[in-house]
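Researcher: Next sequence.
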Amino acid sequence: INHYNDKFIGQSLNSSKGLFFYYSSKSNKKAWVDYMPKTKIHNKFIRDVYSGSLCSDGNIIAYGSRYFDEVLFYNWNGNLLKEYYFSKIVNPILSENFSGVDPQSKLFTLDIYGTKSFCYILRANETASNLRGSLNFPSQLLIFNWQTSLIKTIELESLPLCFCIDEQNNLLYCIISSSELNDFVKLFKIPLS
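Model: Next structure:
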């Protein structure tokens, strides 16, 4: 769950009502955003196939899908404002094992981080089975402003385990797995201007 003044957004592991819910404690209104992209998935796989990550600046909600190569922006009424597709939408390979999605399916949005000015999305574009063996795959950091424009794509040499942003000092902090099996923090400078 993410909280912004009297507003909340989140996903539920126990519900297949939509991509995410939004709630206002001021109006006591709770609603779900419909699944995107519209595709036919058996109900028992819906929660897994449509998993993703959320962030907001308090006015706009950004959603990055784990198994579809999409980034979606919504307002707080649940209206779709803008959609980005970075490759052809293909349904992931379903499996009774592996939490409903086969590890041969590609992973896209792995993490998301929002600040007052920007939304940062870590995009893998690699199969889960390949990433289990090594994180030495290139990845991308997609940078959007809250007017829903993609302003920059930063190519990363390897896939961070997680990241956060220091906008004041223009830095990206990542945890990258080292070849010695010890994790360390690698610092990236982000030229936003």
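Model: The two ends are 32 Å apart (CA to CA). Helices lie at 46-49, 128-133.
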